[in-house]
Design a protein that fits this description.
- It contains six helices and five strands, in the order βββαβαβαααα.
- It is of the alpha/beta class.
- The protein has a single domain, classed as 2-Layer Sandwich (Nucleotidyltransferase, domain 5).
- Strands 3-2-1-4-5 form a five-stranded mixed sheet, with helices on both faces.
- It is globular.
- About 30% of the residues are buried.
Length: about 220
């Protein structure tokens, strides 16, 4: 299916997925990071590091990710570019069987999958991202740590400086409220001043963000 306009007003309505190369220990060696991202919340719903990019691996990965989440048939659309694996028949048949629709980027449009394309640089431009990975286990360990941070702690500018987990689950308890401005959008000390507790204010911010999304749809 060609790219069409899709609007998500809640999590698990529109996912984006892509694959990126990770440099291996020697020249011309690579590992492949597969990532599925919820477009509304920016939450990484699934990821995998594999020794190759292959249609059958992608099929298994996407199917397992869909089954891990409460996604009723007919609700979810998955968007991707027009890469060989993304447009493969195993992936197409699998998503159709699960009641999931799929869209692809428009021909000759290089930035038609912006959510996945912007998420990979967030990882690769970090100062602790290695030039090469010594083995596939090293790459998996790094990605696990990074994606845990990305989901639970990263304050994303595209979702009102909330974390992806907050928006995806509406769960403000995932946040840790310290006194540091770079971790908490409400850095003031909350004592007996009559101001609301940070967790309550976070819930209000999530609600406001989702209302804005719903009103603009």
């Amino acid at each position: 299916m060609d790219a069409v306009t899709h609007l998500a007003t809640a999590p698990n309505q529109l996912w984006s997925w892509d694959i990126t190369k990770l440099l291996g220990p020697a020249k011309w060696t690579y590992f492949y990071l597969y990532v599925i991202l919820d477009v509304l919340s920016r939450y990484v719903t699934g990821w995998m590091v594999a020794p190759r990019d292959a249609a059958e691996l992608a099929r298994q990965f996407i199917e397992e990710t869909i089954r891990k989440h409460p996604v009723p048939a007919g609700q979810l659309n998955i968007h991707a570019d027009r890469g060989r694996v993304m447009t493969s028949k195993p992936v197409a048949f699998m998503v159709a069987d699960l009641g999931v629709t799929r869209t692809h980027t428009r021909p000759y449009v290089s930035d038609d999958n912006p959510y996945s394309e912007s998420q990979f640089p967030t990882m690769k431009y970090r100062p602790d991202f290695p030039d090469r990975f010594g083995c596939i286990q090293d790459s998996r360990a790094f990605c696990q740590q990074f994606l845990q941070w990305y989901n639970q702690e990263h304050r994303h500018s595209g979702i009102g400086l909330l974390t992806p987990a907050m928006v995806h689950f509406g769960d403000t308890q995932t946040a840790s409220f310290g006194g540091h401005q770079n971790h908490c959008p409400y850095p003031q000390r909350f004592g007996s001043t009559g101001r609301s507790h940070p967790a309550k204010r976070q819930r209000e911010e999530v609600s406001k963000f989702l209302r804005r999304v719903s009103q603009s749809a």
